Amino acid sequence: MRPKKTRWVKCEPGERCFRPQCKPQSKLEGVNLAIDEFEAIRLADLEKLTQAEVARRMKVHRSTISRILASAHEKIADAFVNIKAVKIEGGCCKIVGGKK
Q1: Which of 22, 40, 68, 85 measures 20 to 30 Å from 57, CA to CA?
Q2: What is the pLDDT of residue 100?
Q3: Mean pLDDT per segment of 10 residues, for the chain of length 100 residues?
Q4: Contact criterion met (CB below 8 Å) for 8 and 91
Q5: Beta-bridge partner residues of 88
Q6: Which of 38, 37, 35 is nearest to 90 (CA)?
Q7: pTM for this predicted structure
Q8: Which residues is 85 bridged to in the sheet?
Q9: What is the C-alpha to C-alpha distance for residues 80 and 19, in angstroms, rounded to an integer?
Q10: CA 82 → CA 47, 60, 89, distances in Å?
């Protein structure tokens, strides 16, 4: 398997875990959202950039961004629908610049 190309991330998430308060923590499941997935969601959905623009900023191919976004959207939907915590961590990233 080919090693993953480093994704360039400008905005490191400050708070890294979000959890619903309607379930006790002992009964709460979670999903892990990688930092590159977080950044792709931020750029595409919050800043309204095209996938090509997101790919340029993160220095990867556009098809890679498409896969990253699909994975991130699936994880976020799973967390919302099935009442799970979301933890943002890991991934093959290089954080540049500063926090937004």
Answers
A1: 85
A2: 44
A3: 63 74 86 91 96 94 96 97 89 59
A4: no
A5: 33
A6: 35
A7: 0.79
A8: 30
A9: 10
A10: 27, 31, 20
